[in-house]
Design a protein that fits this description.
The structure is a single chain. With 158 residues, the protein is mainly beta. The chain has one domain. Helix content is 9%, strand content 24%. Strands 2-1-5-4-3-6 form a six-stranded mixed beta sheet. A hairpin with a 2-residue loop joins strand 3 and strand 4. The longest helix is centred in the first third of the chain and has 10 residues. The protein starts with 27 loop residues before the first strand and ends in a 12-residue tail after the last strand.
């Protein structure tokens, strides 16, 4: 994406200058393997992670949807703000290999337990990188701040 092709993320969740290039609305989509495992346990036929097109899949978070509480994380050397749940669309019902629609799953099942206040079906979290760097498979993920948990960084400069 050329530097002249600026697409600002929603200022409701991002800052002026936060950009997105080829993704829908935010630069990074984060999902935990535990969340996918919990969904697949409810489905007659499990779906692969590629249905959700995440950039980052983390494992070992302890429980499904732990990522919902995260507000700031570090993956390897890259820090990210975890800004909002990802509202899912009909693409999740498309087999990513064949481009064939598979029915109403997984949206139908997600709608039974992952509805947002506006009625959208939520799964995974949108994030914005705050530092530059390289992400590698196997990088450690450190949760720097969670919703409702005050950190020293929240107090501002000392």
């Amino acid at each position: 994406m050329p530097d002249t092709g600026v697409r600002q993320v929603s200022l409701r969740y991002g800052r002026p200058g936060d950009r997105v290039a080829f993704a829908d609305a935010y630069p990074v989509m984060l999902l935990s393997a535990e969340s996918l495992d919990a969904l697949n346990a409810r489905l007659a036929e499990p779906v692969p992670v590629n249905r959700f097109r995440p950039n980052l899949v983390v494992r070992g978070v302890g429980e499904p949807h732990a990522e919902d509480r995260w507000r700031r994380i570090r993956v390897g050397s890259v820090e990210l703000d975890v800004v909002k749940p990802c509202a899912r669309c009909v693409i999740t019902t498309i087999d990513q290999t064949t481009a064939r629609r598979t029915g109403k799953e997984p949206l139908r099942t997600l709608a039974t337990y992952r509805r947002g206040p506006d009625g959208g079906v939520l799964f995974g979290m949108n994030a914005i990188h705050r530092t530059r760097g390289t992400l590698r498979v196997g990088d450690a993920v450190e949760v720097l701040a969670e919703a409702g948990v005050k950190t020293a960084a929240d107090d501002g400069p000392s």
